[in-house]
Design brief:
The protein is of the alpha/beta class. A hairpin with a 2-residue loop joins strand 1 and strand 2. The longest helix has 17 residues.
């Protein structure tokens, strides 16, 4: 049965993006088979939770194809030593922490926002992968990557997660030498050290006196050749000592103008994850929590009204709440739906709201398949291909929950996530699929 599982892993590896497979599927081991129950081991609790929620249906399907029908899958946290198994992926010795005496009780190099912790981060489908990876890294769970790069537009939570990692690491080990800064600050500090002939001190600070480097806004390094070269050497030194490195950027390294291939390669050598805009349910949670933090007693009607229209990012929601509170106080009015609509009109432009039915109708007509076949159990490519396109377009162009999208195609939550992930992966190499999706997206935008 162990050989069967290894074969299934190879099949999944050929279908999933490399990073997703390496982080979630590859570490899973076969533990035992008791009757009709197959027990698989995950390296930590976050991995177990993520796999069960997002890949359970896929794994069950692969076992079914392999002839193992009517079985139950049980996932357990495998606490056995995995050093021998992962030695090829972790060529550097385990880090030995060098104690550092904090200055006035505060470790050097740390300037973290107290509000940016894991317990204050609202998790949703668009950021759950980044959240789980960040939490696993911060908690010291088995980690097969030298770095974590989080890609997101402004206001979607990448800075929050980056600083949350720093908070969590310091909570478990206050003596850890953590450095948090923007790429701009890194550049300015390097320039200053060059002018003052203290470049060796600068190099020693980041290459030898740092255990965790949190570097924000990597896209700022565009065109700064000397800074890019220095950072590349610094990253090599940290990687050789098996130190942890977290980056954030609004652009993928390949899209940053005038960035060296060497630095781009180093930035993407670890785990790369994206953070998308929050869906409707997540926006409701964010608005509810932030309203409470601002001592605002908002009715459910107002919360849902704001969540329906404020789709851009978290900062837009924060701005709306502050504006609503200010108007209420200055005009001596209660916070009511009419006042909320006034605030919304100032922040949001009018735009059409697509429905799942409209997307379903367009996809069915374009691929010339009956709408009912999109929700059929058939796995023929004739129906599976447009079904995946439909799921992808629904995720991209609507704020519907994954559960609602899944219901329209008679599938599970994990199947929708898997279909989206596979479609995004294939679009990078399949020009025909990319052209079709871009064409359909344009049609939807013009509706």
């Amino acid at each position: 049965m162990k050989a069967v599982w290894e074969g299934i892993k190879r099949q999944i590896g050929s279908e999933l993006p490399k990073n997703s497979f390496s982080l979630w599927i590859n570490p899973i081991t076969f533990l035992a088979k008791n009757g009709k129950t197959i027990i698989l081991g995950c390296p930590n609790k976050f991995s177990r939770k993520w796999v069960m929620e997002n890949y359970l249906a896929l794994i069950q399907d692969k076992f079914h194809t392999a002839g193992e029908t009517h079985l139950d899958l049980l996932f357990k946290v495998d606490t056995r030593e995995t050093q021998d198994e992962t030695s090829s992926e972790m060529p550097y010795p385990k880090q030995l922490l060098i104690p550092t005496v904090p200055i006035n009780g505060k470790p050097p190099g740390v300037s973290l926002n107290r509000q940016f912790t894991f317990d204050k981060f609202i998790v949703g489908p668009a950021n759950e992968f980044a959240y789980s990876a960040s939490h696993a890294l911060a908690d010291g769970d088995p980690w097969h990557y030298q770095s974590l790069l989080m890609l997101a537009n402004t206001g979607l939570g990448k800075t929050h997660l980056s600083q949350a990692i720093g908070h969590e690491v310091l909570l478990h080990n206050p003596q850890t030498r953590v450095y948090y800064m923007t790429a701009e600050n890194f550049t300015n500090e390097m320039i200053s050290s060059l002018k003052n002939n203290t470049i060796e001190k600068f190099k020693n600070k980041y290459r030898r006196s740092c255990d965790l480097l949190l570097l924000e806004e990597i896209h700022f390094l565009s065109g700064k050749e000397k800074t890019q070269a220095e950072l590349a050497y610094t990253l090599d030194a940290l990687a050789n000592d098996n130190k942890k490195i977290i980056f954030t950027s609004s652009l993928p390294p390949k899209d940053i103008p005038r960035i060296s291939k060497e630095l781009s390669s180093r930035l993407t050598s670890g785990l790369v994850t994206t953070i998308g805009g929050p869906d409707y349910e997540t926006r409701v949670k964010i608005l509810t929590k932030k309203a409470a933090a601002n001592n605002m007693a908002l009715s459910k009607e107002i919360i849902h009204l704001l969540a329906t229209h404020l789709k851009r990012d978290i900062r837009q929601m924060e701005s709306a709440l502050k504006c609503l509170k200010a108007k209420s106080e200055l005009l001596s009015q209660k916070m009511n739906p009419a006042l909320a609509k006034d605030v919304i009109s100032c922040l949001v432009s009018r735009e059409s709201s697509l429905t799942l039915e409209e997307i379903r109708d367009l996809v069915s007509k374009y691929y010339k398949v009956e709408q009912d076949m999109l929700s059929s159990r058939s796995r023929k490519r004739t129906y599976a291909y447009p079904r995946n396109i439909y799921i992808y377009l629904c995720r991209r162009h609507t704020d519907q929950t994954i559960e609602n999208i899944a219901k329209t195609v008679n599938r599970s939550h994990s199947t929708v996530l898997y279909a989206t992930e596979v479609t995004e992966h294939k679009m990078k190499t399949d020009h025909r699929m990319r052209h079709e999706i871009n064409f359909l997206s344009q049609k939807l935008q013009n509706m």
